[in-house]
Amino acid sequence: MAFPLGILLFFLIALPISDVHADIISPWRYEAYNNFEGGHRVGVTRKHHRPKFSPSQWKEAHATFYEGNSGTFGGACGYQDVVKEGYGLDTTALSTALFNNGRTCGACFQIKCVNSQWCKGQSSIYVTATDLCPPNYSIPSDNGGWCNPPRKHFDLAIPAYLKFAEYRGGIVPVIYRRVPCKREGGIRFTMNGNPYFNLIKVWNVGGAGEIVRVQVMKDDGKFKWTDLRRNWGQNWDTDVRLVGERLSFRVTASDGRSSVSRRVAPKYWQFGQTYEGKNFP
Q1: 216: which strand partners?
Q2: Whole-model pTM?
Q3: In angstroms, how far is CA 195 from the centroid of its own chain?
């Protein structure tokens, strides 16, 4: 039976087209549940193209250094070994004004030593925020209390500091800016806690590096994203029962982009294990 051309065009225009492979999405979304994988329906999220994270404007600050090792440079952010976890020794602790209650953990900075006799030839370094430089209110902020609010200050791991300044300089003026983070492999999710309290460490995040939201979805047919709470640093928690469920994660960065890692933790995942998802480009 022939159909009028106008009716055919109506059906062609009205049919929805789902992007079933969308992994990078915006915080707002349109969800459809018309995709089947292995006999189970899963949520489909449409892409919204946001620009990749780009460098910020240059700002002024100061930098000092502190000594330690790969197992201590990641303290306040919850990174257990910055070398094994891919950050290397080019890391920094941030003053309270920059640390932002742990929200800035994982962010990347370009820092230049300027206007000091102690600057070396390599005047620019790239570092990841992995720790907190706590304030010391017993010392004036302009004479030892470098990390006191409202000062913006970088307390660099000593291997990073020595790349652009002399040891005897102690403290040097710098300019800095946020830059995109480049990571090998995908976002990692390390499962900690117990059957009644899940503490998930999220690390190796590319792009903005700075996480503002983490969600988990159980593969239980309900297709419901559950928000995790920031516990400390980049450790996120929930008391929702996740044991025995295959898990998907959605990570939202400070630039508004989100990365969806579908079914990365198998049904019988174990505490103490790490699972790899999709990263930001």
Answers
A1: 226, 249
A2: 0.81
A3: 25
Q: What is the pLDDT along the chain (281 residues), one digit of tens a residue?
A: 443 444 333 333 333 333 322 233 223 222 322 232 333 333 333 344 688 899 999 999 999 999 999 999 999 999 999 999 999 999 999 999 999 999 999 999 999 999 999 999 877 999 999 999 999 999 999 999 999 999 999 999 999 999 999 999 999 999 999 999 999 999 999 999 999 999 999 999 999 999 999 999 999 888 899 999 999 999 999 999 999 999 999 999 999 999 999 999 999 999 999 999 999 98
- Report whether 98 contacts 104 (CB < 8 A): yes
End-to-end CA gap in the chain: 50
Omega prior to 150 cis, within 30 of 0: yes
User: What does 18-41 look like in DSSP terms, one character per residue?
Assistant: --TT--EE-SS--EEEEEEETTEE
Structure-token pair, residue 31: 């969800």
226 - beta bridge partners?
A: 216
Closest-CA residue to 247 (of 198, 182, 186): 198
Asked if 187 contacts 277 with a C-beta cutoff of 8 angstroms, the reply is yes
* 249 contacts 189 by C-beta, under 8 angstroms: yes
Instruction: Determine contact, residues 109/90, Cβ cutoff 8 Å.
Output: no
H-helix or E-strand spanning residue 10: helix 5-14
